[in-house]
Structure to design on (225 residues):
């Protein structure tokens, strides 16, 4: 199976900060990498597909980059509604494994 | 309105069975991929299973041989039949749509809780 890791596991940031979250796959997944946001008690929300394609309706302060094994989610100018947990997931090969998540909370 | 609604969760004893339903509106389960993803209390997301538009199915290793995903296209519903349930299957179960071209789940249900306990 393809193992997904994320760093950091959590971070504290302030409104207006730039935040970067890393995701690494144990083998090459090309651009088959998705980012989700999850608020407590809610279903996940699709942010970015194919490593860098912003989903319709997602603010442009979110961006994704990378290919192969190393990927990055960047949030420029963090907003109050962005405090949440972020997950990466590979869709290159079954089982479609998720990363362990990165919790972004308020400093 | 494009929507997925899960139902069928509840409390079940270890070794028991349960069938979850994912009722879909606004699109067809026959032309989209439907995934099941679960989340144990306080834990991260775990991909469980998928049924593709062509009918192919896949499972994560821990449920293979115990869970079965199926669909009823006229009823526009996808099912997850869960047998030989274990305490570690306790989780909120979400169904989600992948339209195929995204290779990602763009619409999610609200989730249904499954508790496996004696």
């Amino acid at each position: 199976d393809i193992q997904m890791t994320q760093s950091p596991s959590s971070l504290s940031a302030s409104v207006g900060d730039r935040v970067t979250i890393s995701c690494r796959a144990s083998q090459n997944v090309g651009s088959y990498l998705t980012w989700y946001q999850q608020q407590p008690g809610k279903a996940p929300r699709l942010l970015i597909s194919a490593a860098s394609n912003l989903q319709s309706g997602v603010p442009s302060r979110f961006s994704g980059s990378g290919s192969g094994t190393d990927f990055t989610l960047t949030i420029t100018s963090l907003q109050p509604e962005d405090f949440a947990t972020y997950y990466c997931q590979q869709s290159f090969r079954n089982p479609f494994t998720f990363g362990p998540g990165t919790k972004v909370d308020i400093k | 309105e494009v929507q997925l609604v899960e139902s069928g969760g509840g409390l079940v004893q270890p070794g028991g069975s349960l069938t979850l339903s994912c009722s879909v509106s606004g699109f067809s389960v026959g032309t989209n991929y439907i995934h099941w993803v679960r989340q144990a209390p306080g834990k991260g997301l775990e991909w469980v299973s998928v049924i593709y538009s062509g009918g192919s199915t896949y499972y994560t290793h821990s449920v293979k041989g115990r869970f079965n995903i199926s669909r009823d296209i006229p009823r526009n519903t996808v099912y997850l039949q869960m047998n030989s349930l274990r305490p570690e299957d306790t989780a909120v179960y979400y169904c989600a749509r992948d339209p195929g071209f995204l290779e990602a789940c763009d619409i999610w249900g609200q989730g249904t809780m499954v508790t496996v306990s004696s």
